[in-house]
Amino acid sequence: MIADNYAINKQHFRQAPDSFSGRLRFLGPGFILSASIVGSGELIATTILGAKAGFVMFWIILVSCFVKVAIQLQFGKQAIITGETVMHSFNKLPGIRLKKLHWSVWTVLLLTLLKIVQVGGMLGGSALVMHMLLPQAPVPVWTIILAVIVSLLVYKNYYPLLEKASLFMLVIFTVITITSLVMVQFTQFAFSMNDLAGGLTFELPAAMVMLAIGAFGITGVGSDEIISYNYWCLEKGYASHTGLQDGSEAWKQRAEGWIRVMYLDATVAMIVYTAVTAAFYLLGASILHGREHVPEGNELINVLANIYTQTLGEGFRIIFLVGAFFVLFSSVFATLAYWSRLFSDIAGQKGWIDFTNTQQRRKLITVLSFSIPALWAAAYLFIELPVLMIISGGIVGSVLLLIIVYAAICFRYKTPAYIRSSKAFDVLLWISILSILLVAIYGIVQLLQNL
Fold it and tell me: Residue 88's domain spans which residues?
């Protein structure tokens, strides 16, 4: 496998495996994607949604995780068919260009920089959970320690390491989260099959409409995950195995084969993050719904942990907090891996480095891997309001989703005729596009009204 390959300069052609078991061996981008998706939004926001709405909105969580995958798949197909990095593809979109860069590239750069505060809140949230586990060290110390750890994990820029670390964290927080949900059934907060069935009736009370739109925006793949999926598909080798696009029947067969592998990768990722997201929602609905006071932010983590302490003992409280830490820290880890590539990619499009030159790219990624977490840590240590910091990224993500929709439409209708999508995929893609578009506009309006 040719990993870390951004330029298809050599003929690394390889037919995709035909069997299901063979395709399983080439999964990987979805592991990093899932590590990014299941973070503060799922742990905190989704649990609070369950607490406020009860079981009635459970179906919306499931639909939200499913319906947005099509636009992610379009970005993955773009990577396989063209072999281009996402900012390279953005830079070729129709529209205004300024100083060598398309307006969409400048916008992605600006909006990502604005999210420093948001990810700083995620880093601070991880530090707070570590302080709950090991209170001997204060939160600021844990913030610095975790910033250094995430830098060391990412700076080498080796895709196999990123994939294995993501898989490790993914397995831990998935097992602990599902176990937490199962253990609830042995407490006074146990829920019945009738409760669960009530959340799958596709009914939505009028009073819950706005809350439902917010839930749709929070769960599933977001703008960062959709963009980052391009890098992980390239580094896994899907594009290099497909080879340079020449329109030949052999190339078409390779492309369709690796697109099928990518589809499986994205589907497995969707199953994992949907299961974890659903578990957090059900924890909120079963334990916290009906309370006069619904805990917010990191208070929520402490309340849930204490409930397990009261019913199952201190040992399970520690287990729950370990899972909460990996949920939060995995997002910080995956975000750093993505940002270091994104900024390097933009630098390459600007002409500051040759992004296809492995040595130049790794040198810049090394610098970014240490400087970006330092900025995140500084932001948290200065503001020290993790929940507010995380929420601040909402408007940024909503605006970025609009660019994602624009790019996805361009990618879809620039796809070569001999590799066109099926009608079923087009229907799902347009459902995804329209859903994201509506939620993004709603999110911008709501957040602007609350400023």
Answer: 24-449
